[in-house]
Design brief:
By secondary structure, the protein is an all-alpha fold. The protein is built from 11 helices and no strands.
Length: about 190
C-alpha cells in the first residue's frame, strides 16, 4: 500500500520543465489510477524527448506505484543527481523510498527538500509519517510541534501508541517524564 500522505504530482510547473512531449494523456491516466496506460504514455514521451524532466519523474512514480519501487529509485537517484536543485525529484524520492520500505532514506530526501526550500509544507508533512515509520515517534512529534502542523486524529493516536510501545520495549526504563510530556502534547489523557 502506498504510504499515507501526499501523492506527488507531475506538472511542468512543478519541475520547471516545458517539454515538447505531450504529457497530458500520461498525467490523466496516472491521476485516474490507470498505471499501465500512464506508463505507456510516459514511455512514449521519453522516446520523444529522453531528458524531459516531468516525463522522467512521472515514469518513475508510475513504476513505483505499479510495484517496482527499486526500478523507480534507480531512475530517481539518477534524476536527483542530474537535476540537483529540483525539489520535486527529492519529494518523489522520499515518497518512493517510503514505498520501498526505506523510511530513513525518505527522511533524508525530505530534509534535502527543506534545505533547498524551507517553505515546503508538503515536505514537512511527509517528514512526520516517515519519521514514525523509521521508529522515531518522538522526533515526529517534535517536528510537528515545531512546524505548527495539526495532526489528524489517526496519526496522533498512532504516535501515542508508538511512544507508549517504545517505553514498554525499554521495560519502563528511559525517561517516563519525557514520555508523559510527549503524550500530553498529543492530547492523551494522563494514565496515572
Amino acid at each position: 500500500a502506498p504510504p499515507t500522505g501526499l501523492r506527488p504530482t507531475v506538472t511542468p510547473a512543478a519541475t520547471g520543465n516545458h517539454p515538447q512531449a505531450p504529457l497530458a494523456p500520461a498525467r490523466a491516466a496516472r491521476d485516474a489510477g490507470q498505471s499501465h496506460p500512464a506508463a505507456a504514455h510516459y514511455a512514449a514521451a521519453l522516446r520523444h524527448d529522453p531528458v524531459a524532466r516531468d516525463a522522467y519523474l512521472g515514469a518513475a512514480l508510475v513504476e513505483a506505484e505499479r510495484g517496482y519501487p527499486r526500478a523507480a529509485l534507480i531512475r530517481l537517484d539518477a534524476a536527483a543527481a542530474r537535476w540537483t536543485g529540483q525539489t520535486e525529484y527529492w519529494m518523489a524520492l522520499g515518497y518512493v523510498r517510503r514505498l520501498a520500505g526505506d523510511p530513513h532514506g525518505a527522511t533524508r530526501a525530505y530534509r534535502h527538500v527543506l534545505r533547498l526550500d524551507p517553505s515546503r509544507v508538503d515536505a514537512r508533512r511527509e517528514m512526520i509519517p516517515a519519521l514514525q515509520q523509521a521508529g522515531r515517534p518522538r522526533a515526529a512529534l517534535r517536528y510537528a510541534r515545531e512546524w505548527g502542523l495539526a495532526l489528524p486524529d489517526a496519526q496522533r493516536t498512532a504516535l501515542q501508541q508508538d511512544i507508549i510501545a517504545g517505553q514498554i520495549r525499554r521495560g519502563g526504563r528511559g525517561d517516563p517524564a519525557a514520555t508523559q510530556r510527549a503524550l500530553q502534547a498529543l492530547g492523551a489523557p494522563n494514565p496515572g
